[in-house]
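Lab notes, practical 5.
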Amino acid sequence: MLDLIPDLTQPAGWLPLVFALVMALAMLAYVILDGYDLGVGVLLRRADDEAQKDAMIASIGPFWDANETWLVLGVGVLLVAFPMAHGVILGSLYLPVALMLVALMLRGVAFDFRVKARAKHKPIWDRAFYTGSLLASWSQGYMLGSLITGFKEDVSSHLFSALIGLCLVAAYCLLGAGWLIMKSEGVLQLKAVRWARGSLWFTAAGVVAISLVTPLVSPHIFEKWFSFPNVVMLLPIPAMTVALFWLMARSLKRLPTRLAQDNHYGAAVPFACTVGVFLLAFYGLAYSLFPWLVVDRLTVWQAASSPEALLVIFYGVVVVLPVIIGYTVFAYRVFWGKSTALKY
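Output from the prediction step:
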């Protein structure tokens, strides 16, 4: 594996690695930040009345549009820094990518129109927002499954990708329910606890499925995980993941009593634990795939643009990335706490 990694002291060595890290950061930030608002969108149909739906939309109102900035950054880095991988990946994922883009556009239109529409038309835009959220979530999961299997075209790979799509929908619902537990109050908050319970074990099933299949995709990945002493050193990753799922289940069991007594202690635990699971899963996946962008076909360095081109882009990233991080942190700081009514 080490023979695939060039001299990291030269620009041709370290620049592709820097852009791979930036792309990984962007995609991780997108999955977590846009993941919870996609989850809220999928959960929208489970609300009892328009007041609850308005409260759910209000909880993501100041954030959802900015969260998608990270997706633009990640795909943009893939395009300009790794054009060969961009062609292979998006060429193989043409249909799910197109579905995701249509779904995200549908969400954007529905979000703005539902607030301004007359009462009789509001349910139509609620359904559109739900449909866009569901399709975008599933298509992202399908793309994840395809990435893991190296974009194979056999039936078992497509079935695995479809399964991971459903599991990612459940994981986003778990994130969204955890977000609502923190941001809402009363009946909606208690319903969010029940929604989180319903999504918990399906999310765990997705993590298990990815963990079992990923080492079997390539001998290189299998060796990285199960050769000695790697297998001992990596044991904390699955152990911590199991611990986080146990902590979530325990918290969700106790929360209804506390919230009914207006005791919000521990309300952030489900969301924080879900973020922890995403971080550990992302780390495990990154460890498995590195240095491949396309498993056993293209490494980070093979897919990269020329060092001269990467150096020019690097200066732009140095300026843009801190700005994106800064306004994201500022927005969450300003709108932290319980959500209020969304009004225009």
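Observations recorded by the TA: The longest strand covers residues 292-294. Strands lie at 292-294, 298-299.
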